[in-house]
């Protein structure tokens, strides 16, 4: 389960995410030192945020690294400002020598702002030379800085539509405006669809990059001050298991063709090939004849070209969560194990990663103390006005009330269970705690609570964790989360969810 704050954090991974797959490659004897850095496209008097990362391609982690940057060409067209970090950097003429030690996550990236000078001319190029050492190895590469003509594609910040499970709906938010002073020669639309609202279009100029995005390319010109609408809305089909009342988030953003080419043309981290449709071509309406751009173009304000499209699921397809408790026997001083849990009785799938509150709360029986706690649970204060961040205190012992999340999205017949080891400090008779499920739209309230009972007697060296509900199937990998992360990682250098949710730019069609 992810809160909105977690999804914002994931969106931040966009600038570093494209080398995740490479860094997860199995280690072998000759794993090389590699440098992750993207080419830069920037308009005069505008700034881009960039990074340089060093890593071993396998599982080995660097303990330290050095970077030597050759700024001799870049200094003619741009200035570079380092973002404060753990790197120690020393300038010397047109070179910059930087050193860093690894923390628990490895050697940090060297992040920097690059600002093109006012007199830089679109079409100019400069090479930023990079040499790295670490782990007894050396590597080098260069970043091409290209001065581009600035355009400003803008879209609506948010859009909403309703749809029933199994239905096909057309996504709103299909209008783009060129708010800049220069004609945008072509555009690229990127759809990152929710895994429960899959793209089902067949347009010949739209490619499906599996698990990542739908990419639609347009060759026509977008004139300054004009708005354009898709000739047809992008169709998505709601999963039959989508839960009534939930909201499926789809992300649509617009890029210049050169900004998109910068992403897909990187030789070190190529995107997988997409599968184009075989039907008619999707177009932008009321456009003049297309022209070729004489110089590269970049979007100078990427905080206003991103639309979050929420699909509110209607119909009558709720999910019924049933709480599951357990019973244990022991005496004062004993440690017993109990299990709290839930089962999804359907008919809908529970999109647990969207929930911002616990799917289950567990009240610890009086006279006992939780000394070992499931890593999917954390102390919970139901009266607090502050957001609940379970990952900050996951598995923390000693609380009276816990909130628990789901490791996946439970389908009908699937649930979750959470083991607790309790120390019995006082027991004059049976004592009980409570397991409570929490899900908006749950159609049955009479199965939302179950007891955790501690009875006197026995040796007390263990508990009967099966209890009232028996064995629960455990949710597996959250494929929706994985797919969502994949889509967000694709956003390298071109905006993201955080700016889409925070921006307050007024959109005028």
TrEMBL record:
Residues 469-503 form the Gram-positive cocci surface proteins LPxTG domain. Residues 1-29 form the signal peptide. Keywords: Cell wall, Membrane, Peptidoglycan-anchor, Secreted, Signal, Transmembrane, Transmembrane helix. InterPro entries: LPXTG_anchor, TAT_signal. The chain crosses the membrane at residues 481-500. This is LPXTG-motif cell wall-anchored protein. It comes from Micromonospora purpureochromogenes.
């Amino acid at each position: 389960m992810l809160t909105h704050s977690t999804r914002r954090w994931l969106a931040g991974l966009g600038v570093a995410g494209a080398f995740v797959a490479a860094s997860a490659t199995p280690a072998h004897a000759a794993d090389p030192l590699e440098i992750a850095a993207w080419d830069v496209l920037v308009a005069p008097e505008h700034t881009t945020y960039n990074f340089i990362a060093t890593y071993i391609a396998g599982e080995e982690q660097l303990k330290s690294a050095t970077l030597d940057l050759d700024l001799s060409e870049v200094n003619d067209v741009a200035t570079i400002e380092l973002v404060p970090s753990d790197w120690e950097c020393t300038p010397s003429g047109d070179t910059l020598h930087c050193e860093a030690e690894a923390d628990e996550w490895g050697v940090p990236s060297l992040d920097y702002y690059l600002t093109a000078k006012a007199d830089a001319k679109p079409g100019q190029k400069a090479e930023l030379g990079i040499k790295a050492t670490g782990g007894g190895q050396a590597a080098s590469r260069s970043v091409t800085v290209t001065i581009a003509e600035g355009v400003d594609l803008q879209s609506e910040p948010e859009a909403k539509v309703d749809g029933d499970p199994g239905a096909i709906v057309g996504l709103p938010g299909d209008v783009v405006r060129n708010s800049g002073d220069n004609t945008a020669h072509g555009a690229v639309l990127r759809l990152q669809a929710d895994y429960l609202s899959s793209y089902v279009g067949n347009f010949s100029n739209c490619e499906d990059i599996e698990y990542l995005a739908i990419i639609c390319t347009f060759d026509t010109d977008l004139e300054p001050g004009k708005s354009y609408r898709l000739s047809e809305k992008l169709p998505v089909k709601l999963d039959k298991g989508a839960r009534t009342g939930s909201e499926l988030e789809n992300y649509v953003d617009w890029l210049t063709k050169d900004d998109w080419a910068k992403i897909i043309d990187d030789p070190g981290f190529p995107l997988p090939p997409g599968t184009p449709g075989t039907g008619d071509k999707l177009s932008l309406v009321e456009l003049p004849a297309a022209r070729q751009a004489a110089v590269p173009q970049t979007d100078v304000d990427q905080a206003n070209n991103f639309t979050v499209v929420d699909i509110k699921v209607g119909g009558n397809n709720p999910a019924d969560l049933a709480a599951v408790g357990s019973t244990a026997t022991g005496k004062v001083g004993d440690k017993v194990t109990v299990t709290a849990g839930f089962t999804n009785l359907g008919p809908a799938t529970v999109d647990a990663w969207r929930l911002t509150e616990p799917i289950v709360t567990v009240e610890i029986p009086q006279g006992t103390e939780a000394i070992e706690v499931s890593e999917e649970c954390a102390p919970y204060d139901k009266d607090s006005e502050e957001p609940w961040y379970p990952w900050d205190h996951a598995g923390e012992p000693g609380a009276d009330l816990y909130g628990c999340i789901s490791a996946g999205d439970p389908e009908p017949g699937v649930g979750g269970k959470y083991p607790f080891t309790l120390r019995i400090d006082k027991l004059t008779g049976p004592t009980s705690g409570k397991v409570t499920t929490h899900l908006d739209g749950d159609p049955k309230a009479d199965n939302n609570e179950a007891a955790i009972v501690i009875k006197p007697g026995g040796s007390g060296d263990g508990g009967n964790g099966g209890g009232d509900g028996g064995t629960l199937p455990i949710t597996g990998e959250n494929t929706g989360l994985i797919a969502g992360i994949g889509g967000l990682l694709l956003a390298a250098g071109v905006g993201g969810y955080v700016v889409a949710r925070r921006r307050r730019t007024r959109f005028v069609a």
